[in-house]
Amino acid sequence: MRAKPRLLIAGCGDVVSRALPWLLQRFRVYVLCRRADQAARLRAMGAVPIMADLDHPATLSRLSGLQAALIHSVPPSTQGETDLRTRKLLSALQKNVPRQGKSAILAQPSRPAVYISTTGVYGNADGRWLDESSGAHPDSARARRRADAELQLRAWACHTGRPLAILRAPGIYAAGRLPTARIERGDPVIRPEEDSWSNHIHADDLAHAICLALFRGRPLRTYNVVDDAPSRMGDWFDEVADASKLPRPARITREQAQVQLSPAILSYLDESRRLRNERLKQELRVRLRWPTTASFFASLF
């Protein structure tokens, strides 16, 4: 029987875990783990845990020269404007790999790579529609770290001949990962005439897109993994409140928000954009299970 190709997962959180059963049918899956309980759970599912921590390069020796497809979803650290974790991961993978000519690279079987980035790299667009051809103009340090990771991965892919797909994800939601805590705290939202546009994707749809990108992603291609219906941020919180049987948040002016809301929340409110997803549907051929947040909430009832 033909051996399964290898796949390395760096960052097996909620979304990638949803994709794991599908991936295990098609790959010999290796997963970076930092905790023994996580390793035991993944081993029971059929994956091969590798105890390693991207914040501690000495633990990454087992990745040296590993020839495998890659799913990278480890978020950058919370400091600085460069993604040191991605740099350490790529350095470990490239260690002890001899330099090869173009003909040797082309002769190798395809080992695709998928990176889960963020739509935050677009920055504020004042509500305009954007697609993947729109330039990256990150406004926050967290988005600049993601943009730096994308650049690092592009350079690595060009050097190694790897097909790389970059999936830019917006706010991810699912049952059990809704912003109910913020509503329960009584945090207000911006009144409609001043509100920002936001984009969403269900965790299952993002997991599905990751799987398809391994096989259908075009080299060095970026994909907006968003649903069909951007919404005003306040409307999103109203939807969550209604579904959770909580009072809708109070509405305030943007000027009042500068005093009443935290800098972290304000940084999200200062970014307004609507994202197109034609490339997701046409090239990856993703059929969204939840094309709108309204369709998801309707299913709950």
Residues in helices, as a percent range: 25-40%
CATH superfamily of the domain at 6-98 and 111-177 and 199-229 and 274-289: NAD(P)-binding Rossmann-like Domain
Distance between the termini: 47 Å
The largest pleated sheet is described as: 7 strands, parallel
Largest sheet, order of strands side by side? 3-2-1-4-5-7-12
Structural class by sheet pairing and helices: alpha/beta
Range of strand content: 15-25%
Shape: globular
Rounded radius of gyration (Å)? 20 Å
The CATH architecture of the domain at 6-98 and 111-177 and 199-229 and 274-289: 3-Layer(aba) Sandwich
SSE pattern: EHEHEEHHEEHEEHEEEHEEHEHHEHH
Poorly predicted residue ranges? 101-108
Per CATH, the class of the domain at 6-98 and 111-177 and 199-229 and 274-289 reads Alpha Beta
Rounded mean pLDDT score: 93
The name CATH uses for the topology of the domain at 6-98 and 111-177 and 199-229 and 274-289 is Rossmann fold
Number of helices: 12
Number of beta strands: 15
Organism: Silvimonas iriomotensis
Pfam families: Epimerase
InterPro entries: Epimerase_deHydtase (IPR001509), NAD(P)-bd_dom_sf (IPR036291), NAD(P)-dependent_oxidoreduct (IPR051783)
Protein name: NAD-dependent dehydratase
Provide a compact summary of the structure.
The protein has 301 residues and is of the alpha/beta class.
What do you see in this structure?
InterPro entries: Epimerase_deHydtase, NAD(P)-bd_dom_sf, NAD(P)-dependent_oxidoreduct. Residues 105-225 form the NAD-dependent epimerase/dehydratase domain. It holds the Pfam family Epimerase. This is NAD-dependent dehydratase. It comes from Silvimonas iriomotensis. The chain is of the alpha/beta class. The strands form 5 sheets. It has a 7-stranded parallel beta sheet with strand order 3-2-1-4-5-7-12, with helices on both faces. A two-stranded parallel sheet has the order 6-15. Strands 8-11 form a two-stranded parallel ribbon. 38% of the residues lie in helices and 18% in strands. The N and C termini lie far apart (47 Å). The model is unreliable at 101-108 (pLDDT under 50). The protein is built from 12 helices and 15 strands. It has a domain at 6-98 and 111-177 and 199-229 and 274-289: NAD(P)-binding Rossmann-like Domain (Rossmann fold). The protein is globular.
